[in-house]
Amino acid sequence: MIRKIYGYSLGLALALAAAASLADGIDQHRLVDAMDIYYGVVPAKVVESHPKKHAEADMHGKNRLSGGTHHLVVTLFDNKTAQRINDAKVDAVVIPLGLAHQQKPLELMQINGTVSYGNYFNMIGNGPFRIELRITRPGKGGTTKTEFEYRLSAN
């Protein structure tokens, strides 16, 4: 039951983040190399509000998250078959304007039987932040690269 509640909460948080971004004119989708790449950024405060016994409590090796930490979530689909891609290796680089970049692998996340990739990044201020994704799929050869600019909503 807790897992279902968490899944719905995370889904709602991502949907709200997507809706807010679309309202601000930000497109959270890329079509690259026959892959539909969807992304969302959720404040860590939202993720931390889930029950302590949930698997999220230790996701991505988090201990205590500092203020300004956000959770980047990426979901991949094969554009031709509309099937979710669950065997990719995804790395992200978050580059704040004028500050040092952070590079981390996005870890496989299984929530309610679906697969996404995610990790925590410090995003202090409203941005802009340049986010670069590098996606490698077994048997597909090469690495797919895409980037986008992201601004956090002013609170």
Describe this structure in words.
- The chain is an alpha+beta fold.
- It has one domain (2-150): Sandwich (Immunoglobulin-like), CATH 2.60.40.3340.
- Helices cover 17% and strands 43% of the residues.
- The protein has 2 helices and 8 strands.
- The protein has helices spanning 2-23, 44-48; strands at residues 29-32, 35-43, 69-78, 89-96, 102-111, 114-122, 129-136, 143-150.
- Strands 1-2-3-6-5-4-7-8 form an 8-stranded antiparallel sheet.
- The longest helix has 22 residues, at 2-23.
- It starts with a helix and ends in a 5-residue tail after the last strand.
Tell me the number of structural domains: 1
Oligomer status: single chain
The top-level CATH class is Mainly Beta
Q: How large, in whole angstroms, is the Cα Rg?
A: 15 Å
**What characterizes the major β-sheet?**
8 strands, antiparallel
Can you tell me the CATH superfamily? Domain of unknown function DUF4426
